TrEMBL record:
PANTHER family: ACREF/ENVCD OPERON REPRESSOR-RELATED (PTHR43479), ACREF_ENVCD OPERON REPRESSOR-RELATED (PTHR43479:SF11)
Name of this protein: TetR/AcrR family transcriptional regulator
Phosphoprotein in keyword set: no
Signal peptide stretch: none
Source organism superkingdom: Bacteria
Pfam family, one: TetR_C_27
The keyword DNA-binding appears for this protein: yes
Residue stretches making up the HTH tetR-type domain: 14-74
InterPro entries documented for this protein: DNA-bd_HTH_TetR-type_CS, Homeodomain-like_sf, HTH-type_Tx_Regulator, HTH_TetR, Tet_transcr_reg_TetR-rel_C_sf, TetR_C_27
DNA-binding region, residue intervals: 37-56
Keywords in alphabetical order: DNA-binding
Length: 202
């Protein structure tokens, strides 16, 4: 089923919508999300503001669509890890490293996109909430798999364990936090993953 992010209007699959998202993405990269208005976007794309509103109810809705594409890329990398023929422990370790690596890449090479993701988290956009829910679901399934294989302890309630792991990821995946530890981010991800895995040992 095709997902339509919050604030979008009209048909889900529409070539013009994709063109608007692509053009807006480039405009945000040049000028930043917060400094851009819908009128600025319309002028840059060569469309009327009224026409943009046929597809998106606000600038935030356009930002949501772009943010969702970024999150889809992150989730694609994580899903590839989950499908790999390795233990649940190694999958969890690689997820920590993947989030840290992708977060650093975004900050260093696509700062404007990094700022959009930061806005999504700060303002609790639907795209950010949906990503957190999907990440939590993936981690929960890994925990269940690890418990079934005798790799992880079973005493702690699964919801509590899952929530604690998601919270432990904050320093390496939250845009407002990871930028303060860029030089040590990879090592930090490894150390936090090691600590989490030791706590999960039976």
């Amino acid at each position: 089923m095709t997902r339509k992010p919050s604030g979008q209007r009209g048909p889900v699959d529409h070539e013009r919508r994709d063109q608007i998202i692509a053009a807006a993405h480039e405009h945000f990269r040049l000028y930043g999300y917060k400094k851009t208005t819908v009128a600025d976007l319309a002028k840059a794309i060569g469309l009327s503001t009224a026409y943009l509103y046929k597809f998106f109810e606000s600038k935030k809705a356009i930002g949501e669509a772009i943010c969702s594409l970024c999150h889809d890329t992150l989730l694609s990398d994580i899903q590839a890890i989950v499908k790999d023929n390795i233990t649940p422990s190694e999958k969890l370790r690689k997820i920590f490293q993947s989030l840290a690596h992708n977060g650093a890449e975004l900050f260093l090479h696509d700062r404007k996109m990094h700022d959009i993701v930061a806005s999504a988290i700060e303002e609790k956009w639907h795209a950010a909430i949906a990503f957190d829910q999907e990440l939590s679901s993936i981690i929960r399934n890994l925990l269940l798999e690890g418990r079934e294989r005798g790799e992880f302890e079973r005493k702690t309630p699964i919801d509590e364990t899952c929530r604690a792991i998601v919270l432990s990821l904050q320093p390496i995946r939250h845009p407002a936090l990871l930028e303060y530890n860029l030089e040590t981010l990879d090592n930090d991800a490894t150390m936090i993953a090691n600590l989490v895995l030791r706590s999960l040992a039976p």
